[in-house]
Here is the input.
Amino acid sequence: MALNLEDVRRAAHLARIAIDDAEAEATLAQLTRVFGMIEEMQAVDVSGIEPMAHAQDLMLRLREDKVTEQDQRALFQSSAPETEAGLYLVPKVIE
Amino acid sequence: MSNATVKELSELLARKACSSVELSQEFINKINGLNKSLGCYITVDAERTLAQAKAADARRAAGNAGVLTGVPLAHKDIFCAKGWLTTCGSKMLGNFVAPYDAHVVERCAAEGMVTLGKTNMDEFAMGSSNETSHFGPVRNPWDQQRVPGGSSGGSAAAVAARLAPAATGTDTGGSIRQPAALTGICGLKPTYGLVSRYGMIAFASSLDQAGPMARSAEDLGLLLNVMAGHDARDSTSLQRPAEDYNRDLAEPLKGLRIGLPKEFFGAGMSADVQKATDAAIAQYQKLGAVPVEVSLPNMNLSVPVYYVLAPAEASSNLSRFDGVRYGHRAAEYGDLLDMYKRSRAEGFGAEVKRRILIGTYVLSHGYYDAYYIRAQKLRRLIAQDFVEAFKTCDVILGPTSPTTAFKFGEKSADPVQMYLSDIYTIAVNLAGLPGMSIPCGFGDGGLPVGLQIIGNYFDEARMLNVAHQYQLATDWHRRAPQGSAS
Here is the structure.
């Protein structure tokens, strides 16, 4: 199945990455190479095989429902691009 | 002293033949002299390093030093280290000062080890040559026209060039083992879940595993003793009793069954790598080991399966970089969507964007079953091949990388060529098994060749035994690139 420019633009939009026409063209050529390799997977019969998500099939642990973290807002926000009064600033979303 | 192993340094410190401050200063001086040309470190901070060394000396004077107290090491820049710039090799995190320590960093600090700096790496650990770093290339100390491998290329080159006695690395598809092989050092990727991923910037969470890089198997064991251990903050961290990974170093290898997968020894491996690998196997036979042919019939699928699963996980993990809470934000933007798109377009490099797009595509509506679920099913087949193989052998041996170190630019134009340089390492991550690389000779142009040792789950102590016995009989691991040993 061949990838087209529209697929690349759609994936870039979903991934929230700006992409111009020249980049989309170059990306299409490279992704076509990569998917050519990935298509080797389609030759194998996988019926009856359980998908494997993790190396160790572990159960998630439960923990006690109690506060373990301290308030470190000021420290964490010190690496933010823009904050005010303890809030992260972004362009206006609601008019 | 910079040519000494971790073991030797710990002994020097224990008998007070030198202080940690003296030792750390010597490494700082070497880094100041050589880092400009080699590019191993992204960040060094002599003041901070020496303060840690001073504290380690005080701890020793007070009589409560651990085995590695005062021994310096470098951390891959993927590990958050409180107060240190932690970039993950990316412009996206170019100004990110970590507000906390990764579990690995915390454990090394608790042992009293001294941080020499943060090492260069492929951006977000995506690469096999260190060419994708935002902070410039790392040069291979054996030949500066060649790459050190990746993604832990800075860690590997620093250890090879004697700019650190040891370093931490991470391995998602070969990122500890392949650079270790290309720079002539030792590196170990533990069983998935043995070392906590807390504070390790995530690439592909079901595959990422941290491990040590050093110049001998014995050193790897000493470091793994410090790094491994349960951590409730990583939901995949395993709860197991503590063990001494060096407990079996002295065991003889007589009767050891070494599995040789026929798929590892076919076409694709260069002649010089083949020659060094064959010689290593012959050496093992001299030590009493018995070769057994095994088969990993689905190994050819490991690269395609990996390039579905790892990008899928990466596209999800890297969605956190949105220019809001930390990291790069574009200078100019319109609305919120535009801010996300421009910040991410500017902050990520080409290879990272490529993988995010692959991952987004294979997870998108209509393709999920055909790619992602199918890849997860094949992952099980690949893991089962190893289970079968370990029924007839104790460890698996083979090459770590199909070639020795390649030249800058040689593979960067074609992503598939680059991806195939991890053809022997990726299956180990998919299965979650432990794997390591140790030097086993030199190929054309005097470039190091790595031997890969793959163990069964939780068999790190045996792998270290297998590597150590080889290192008692050979001296490949003691060879140093010209101009580094002093």
In short: The mean pLDDT of chain A is 92. The radius of gyration of chain A is 23 Å. Residues 5-42 of chain A form one domain. Residues 21-38 of chain A form the longest helix (18 residues).
